[in-house]
Specification:
single chain, 317 residues, alpha/beta, Rossmann fold, Helicase, Ruva Protein, domain 3, 6-stranded mixed β-sheet, globular, binds adenosine-5'-diphosphate, binds magnesium ion
Length: 317
């Protein structure tokens, strides 16, 4: 067994957030065990540390200065998971297909659609679209946390943005600037109203100059931002909307599939006006949970409506 003082050092290193110290102590324990002839345990400690180091290394070298500003993920959603108009779906398919066949386009001096602007009300599938594109193209998704990028000094913010665009250049992926119009929000509350425009302009310039092989997806809820100057910088713009009657029914049928024998969809539809795809999805999940956890409850219109009411009550409080 490891000595008590070793374990104490390990605990201290953990709580003091000293990863290097943590590893040193862990290796000391491994050495101690090896000396006692406990080679299996000693080796297991060493390989565990090596594996953890390799992973840490990966995220570190990927962008040392952008830690906490860019999140990497590998989403597992497919286009078939999305309920949307044919127009939206075909635009997403076109982005995917042009990317896959970009070499063909280049031979004719043409570029695939790489810079895309998504706009529309919350909960209608914008972030979902970025995840679908990344997954369908087997690329990692990088979400840029724009609100965290804005610092007190304009120069610093621009420097960070430049680093993000360097990363986009060096490291192929899908880069999501989700709700990028939130940038500078803090500052404008401090009465520095020009800040948001300045950051936004420098963001748009970076987008315009980008010649990478990555995909850039910018999302905004802010209709006022959708002026011509903005449209011009993007290869494609997709406008999202609250679900139509048909989309609502498709979404409900899709989400409730194995539980829906008693649901009267046509009666339900007029009662869920104004709800987004996300709100409907969540209400379905809530209702499904109820039927799983309470034997006396079965899936029907009342249960779904109660779930929706419950969500709305919290939302509009
Ligand atoms: N069009 C859609 N089709 C199917 N599910 C959707 C759709 N839009 C939203 N959802 C569901 O709601 C969740 C949140 O949606 P999201 O894409 O984050 O909305 P937005 O980014 O437009 O605010 C998604 O993960 C998905 O489960
Ligand atoms: Mg979103």
């Amino acid at each position: 067994m490891a000595k008590a003082d070793n374990i104490l050092s390990l605990i201290k290193a953990h709580y003091n957030n000293e990863p290097e110290r943590f590893i040193t102590v862990a290796l000391q324990i491994a050495a101690h065990e090896a000396k006692l002839g406990h080679t299996l345990v000693a080796n297991e400690i060493k390989t565990t540390i090596d594996k953890a180091k390799a992973n840490r290394h990966k995220t570190k070298t990927f962008a040392p200065d952008l830690q906490g500003l860019v999140l990497e993920s590998e989403p597992a959603v497919r286009l078939s998971d999305m309920i949307a108009s044919d127009d939206i779906k075909s635009k997403i398919k076109r982005i995917i297909s042009e990317f896959v066949q970009r070499d063909k386009l280049r031979k004719h001096d043409l570029e695939n659609r790489r810079k895309v602007l998504l706009s529309g009300p919350p909960g209608t599938g914008k972030t979902l679209t970025a995840s679908i594109i990344a997954n369908e193209l087997h690329l990692p998704l990088y979400t840029i946390l724009m609100d965290k990028m804005v610092t007190k000094f304009m120069g610093e913010t621009s420097a960070k943005l430049r680093q993000v665009f360097d990363l986009i250049q060096q490291n192929q992926g899908v880069y999501l600037f989700d709700e990028f119009d939130a940038i500078g929000g803090e500052r404008s509350r401090d009465n520095d109203v020009g800040e948001m425009r300045r950051v936004l302009n420098s963001f748009l310039q970076f987008i315009e100059r980008d010649k990478s092989d990555s995909l850039i997806i910018a999302v905004t809820n802010n209709k006022a931002l959708l002026d011509q100057a903005l449209f011009r910088r993007f290869d494609d713009v997709i406008l999202y909307h609250l679900p139509t009657l048909e989309e609502k029914e498709e979404l409900l049928r899709n989400r409730l599939a194995p539980f829906a024998s008693k649901v009267k969809f046509k009666d339900l539809l007029p009662n869920i006006n104004g709800l987004s795809h996300a709100e409907i999805s969540l209400a379905c999940t809530d209702a499904i949970k109820e039927t799983i956890l309470h034997e006396n409850k079965q899936m029907d219109n009342d249960l779904i409506l109660a779930a929706i009411k419950d969500r709305n009550a919290a939302y509009y409080k």
